[in-house]
Specification:
Strand content: 15-25%
Strand order of the largest sheet: 6-7-8-3-9-10
Shape: globular
Order of helices and strands: HEEEHEEHEHHHEHEHEEHH
Helix content: 25-40%
Number of helices: 10
Oligomer: single chain
Number of strands: 10
Structural class: alpha/beta
Length: about 270
């Protein structure tokens, strides 16, 4: 059976039939989703936080996850990046499982970058060294190559003048833009953003969102957890509403924000819009 997931979302059974035996030779970049999440389950002791989540993300998609706190959004991102282990289901990247059997986690994280709510910059390193650490030691770039890459990325995020600064000398918005540049330095195919603006002062939110909009315009595949509904309306290809550990409703922004069907979603939007 061949299922190309382009016209509509297939059932879980169809996805399992197509992807049940992971085989990268079956992956067709022009047609198949870059990421497929199948019946994903995650527990923390007795608390089940993901209860059979199913989602697919095409190359170039911007998927925004919204929902109340505790709904499993951040945990889902952490599972995709293998920062958490799972108790059931599967996650496929380019047609191959990233959770079954042995695998090089560092290699995976070079291809699936992540930006966190808190910036996680090394305080004792300059901006330049924060950005070049990964390329030099994981991608085996020379110092000259890594520095040139960092300079290009600093220009891209509008912080070329902060090259030799330390994190303590930066604002929150600047730190987050450096964190984005650091993730991009690994040249990932997918970027995960876990509430990247929630720790920022309101006046700094816009500068970070603008960098993310530029990435979207350039075709970067992104999965974003955010409470910035205006950003979701403007940038998302698909908005996914999560509550109680499951996807309650998903669709294009116009459908989710203007014509929601799920009662939980209607209530959620009523409280924040």
């Amino acid at each position: 059976m061949t299922v190309h997931l382009r016209e509509k979302k297939p059932s879980a059974q169809e996805m399992l039939e197509h992807y049940g035996t992971p085989d990268p030779k079956k992956f067709n970049a022009a047609l198949d989703p870059l990421i497929v999440i199948l019946n994903l389950r995650k527990r923390f002791k007795s608390l089940e936080v993901l209860k059979g989540v199913e989602l697919y993300v095409r190359k170039g998609d911007v998927v925004v996850l919204i929902g109340p706190s505790g709904s499993g959004k951040s945990t889902l991102l952490r599972c995709i990046n293998r920062l958490e282990t799972i108790q059931g289901g599967d996650i496929l990247f380019e047609g191959s499982s990233i959770v079954r059997g042995p695998g090089d986690v560092n290699k995976l994280r070079r291809r699936i970058g992540m930006v966190f709510q808190h910036f996680n910059l090394f305080p004792h390193l300059t901006v330049l060294d924060n950005i070049t650490l990964g390329p030099r030691y994981l991608r085996k770039m020379s110092r000259e190559e890594a520095n040139a890459l960092a300079d290009r990325l600093l220009e891209r995020v509008g912080l070329a003048d902060k090259r030799d600064a330390y994190p303590s000398q930066l604002s929150g918005g600047q730190k987050q833009r450096i964190a984005i540049a650091r993730a991009l330095a690994m040249e990932p195919e997918v970027m995960l953003f876990d509430e990247p603006t929630s720790a920022l002062d309101p006046e700094m939110v816009g500068e970070v969102l603008e960098v993310m909009k530029d990435l979207a315009r350039d075709g970067m595949t992104m999965i974003i957890v955010t409470h910035e509904m205006g950003f979701a309306r403007e940038v998302a290809d698909k908005v996914v509403f999560m509550a109680d550990g499951v996807i309650q409703e998903e669709g294009p922004p116009e459908k989710i924000f203007n014509h929601p069907k799920n009662e939980r979603l209607v209530s959620f939007l009523g409280k924040i819009l």
